[in-house]
């Protein structure tokens, strides 16, 4: 159950929604969800990170095109990373620890590349290196009925996954903050050799594999929490 109050505000020219947990004066951490989800996906982890002995101020935004945030029809991952930076600034934070899952992980590493001073420590959950898909992902058919996300976002992110901007690869050496890459193991839909490749591209990254599939934080919440807490508290 999502127990946090939903907030909305302007960031980077659009309205973003976010949830918040923990003491307002505690060190901030931002949790970025996967495609098709929203910030409420992080509730279990956020509630735990927000509690003693080392409570944190936890923010979980809905990425543009998802949930209660605006659906502007324009979905480059770079813009999503700028949204997060603008949100942090609006909330009064110069920097934060950042945890990203899947699409949220791409947004997180682009934030770290483009605005390295904003990210103190970085956690990437089951995120692969930005290599073109071979064969490319074919166009998906839109499901019937209302969706909790913009279908245009799916088309846009599929196109970026099929042919990521080469700059994403070239700028991995800009990610100089401590980074933890968590792979989901052999049952994940993400090629684990590409997850390992991402960890090798980032200068100060370590790789841990949890055999839980793509949804590590959901399938093995206690192990994921322990890994994240230990890493952020170092």
Feature tags:
8 strands, 234 residues, Rossmann fold
Report what the structure shows.
With 234 residues, the protein is of the alpha/beta class. It has a single domain, classed as 3-Layer(aba) Sandwich (Rossmann fold), CATH 3.40.50. It contains eight helices and eight strands. It has helices at residues 43-49, 77-90, 103-114, 151-162, 166-170, 192-201, 216-219, 221-232, and strands at residues 6-11, 14-21, 28-32, 57-61, 96-101, 119-125, 179-183, 205-209. It has an eight-stranded mixed beta sheet with strand order 1-2-4-3-5-6-7-8, sandwiched between helices. Strand 5, helix 3 and strand 6 (119-125) form a beta-alpha-beta unit. The radius of gyration is 16 Å and the shape is globular.
* Poorly predicted runs of 5 or more residues: none
Helix content: 25-40%
Please identify the structural class as seen in this structure. Answer: alpha/beta
* Structure annotation, total helices: 8
Order of helices and strands: EEEHEHEHEHHEHEHH
**Sheet of most strands:** 8 strands, mixed
CATH class annotation = Alpha Beta
- Mean pLDDT across every amino acid position: 96
User: Order of strands in the sheet with the most strands?
Assistant: 1-2-4-3-5-6-7-8
Q: Assign the CATH architecture.
A: 3-Layer(aba) Sandwich
Q: Could you give the count of β-strands?
A: 8
Strand percentage: 15-25%
CATH superfamily caption: Alpha/Beta hydrolase fold, catalytic domain
What is the 3D shape?
globular
Q: What is the CA-atom radius of gyration, in angstroms? A: 16 Å
Number of domains: 1
């Amino acid at each position: 159950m999502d127990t946090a109050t939903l907030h909305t505000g302007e960031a980077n020219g659009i309205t973003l929604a976010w949830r918040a947990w923990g003491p307002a004066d505690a060190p901030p951490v931002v949790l970025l969800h996967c495609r098709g989800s929203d910030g409420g996906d992080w509730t279990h982890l956020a509630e735990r990170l927000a509690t003693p002995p080392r409570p944190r101020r936890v923010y979980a935004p809905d990425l543009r095109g998802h949930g209660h945030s605006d659906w502007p029809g324009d979905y480059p991952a770079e813009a999503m990373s700028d949204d997060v930076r603008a949100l942090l600034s609006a909330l009064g934070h110069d920097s934060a620890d950042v945890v990203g899952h899947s699409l949220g992980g791409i947004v997180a590493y682009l934030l770290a590349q483009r605005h390295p001073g904003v990210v103190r420590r970085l956690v990437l959950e089951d995120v692969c290196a930005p290599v073109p898909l071979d064969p490319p992902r074919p166009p998906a058919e839109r499901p019937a009925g209302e969706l909790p996300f913009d279908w245009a976002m799916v088309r846009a992110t599929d196109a970026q996954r099929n042919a990521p901007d080469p700059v994403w690869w070239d700028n991995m050496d800009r990610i100089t903050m401590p980074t933890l890459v968590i792979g989901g193991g052999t049952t994940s839909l993400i090629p684990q050799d590409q997850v390992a490749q991402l960890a090798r591209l980032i200068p100060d990254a370590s790789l841990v594999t949890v055999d839980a599939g793509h949804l590590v934080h959901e399938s093995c919440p206690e192990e994921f929490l322990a890994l994240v807490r230990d890493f952020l508290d170092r």
